[in-house]
Amino acid sequence: MTDPQGPWVAPVEVRERVSRLLCDLVAIPSHGGQEGAIIQYLMERFARQDIPCRVTAVDGKPLNVVAEIGQGPRTFLLNSHVDTVPPGDPALWATDPLIPVEKNGRIYGRGAEDAKGCLASMIVAFERLAMRRDALPARVVLMAVGAEERGGLGTQAEMAKGFTADAAIIGESTHLVPMLAHKGVLRLEIEVAGRAAHASDPDAGINAIVAVAPIVSALDQLAAAVRRRTDPFVGKASLVISTIAGGVALNVIPAQCVITIDRRVLPQETEADVLGEIVAVVNQALPAASGATAAIRRVRFVPPSSTDPGAAIVRAAEEAAARILGRPAPAQGFTATCDMTYLVNQGKIPTVILGPGSIEVAHQANEYVPVDQLALAVEVYLGTLDAWLTST
Question: Burial, 3: exposed, middle or buried (Cβ in 10 Å; 0-12, 13-18, 19+)?
Fold first, then answer.
């Protein structure tokens, strides 16, 4: 039913179906490369409904389940991940993180929000489509991927196989508001090398920690400048010195000090420009007379990505979300990185990020997702597909 003054109310059977499925998924541990059991669960579930699916393995281990229904000249993709981060310290949880608990309209457990809640809603929507698969005028693909938390290996594997689509939804928590862009991330390690000596004779050595100090100060000044750069959707860029390590003993001049940097990259920025700026600052700040040297190593780069605000998938998601939520839902920007980067940058697929729950509880103890949003997400996914089919 629809209330013009408020959100759409999901049918009880949808709420119950998606809740049961999410509880099943949470109860299957899938962190640290343990995707096998949850992949098997999904294969058996789809087999019972005669839904064709295949498994993609990486290094001999099953990582993804890809199911497909419908036919037509266009392809619509639903993508979310089966893996989670580890549960963490059980003492910080009010309940066992691997035993799902429904309480006060929420389901608690590791992965309930990131991203098994999104996946459960996508699967229920996909299964409803499967009931009318012969009438679908497009090919609809559900991609349940692994190793998202380990660098997006599952989605990258599908892109490497040549997968393509005309539109896609990435299942991540957005409070059911579509997101059309996300930041990238560049992680660097800066190692300053000096020379060890006995602490009683500092002139005989080169103190790497002392040589790092002006570099830290200069990078902090750069960080302030970086924060003034903004994007209308994803907000501010950032630079953070996130770790520092140096020295081996209280009585030894440290010969080495290492800092790491996390630089969040806006869609309009390039890796080369961001890296070049940091290299220039480090080289200029390194005390020339100290005798110390600096080496900069690239740890990881995940490119930012964005979809044109006028793209059919963006308009369709905005329309569906507004109808279900009972209020306007203009597309926004996602602050974290996700597998959208591989769909957009490698697959050239217009993509939005969309799902139930809040990213603020991701990777936290007592992670949860509201059951109402799970059920509404089913309708938002279906509504987005319907709106996209009629607008293109």
Answer: exposed
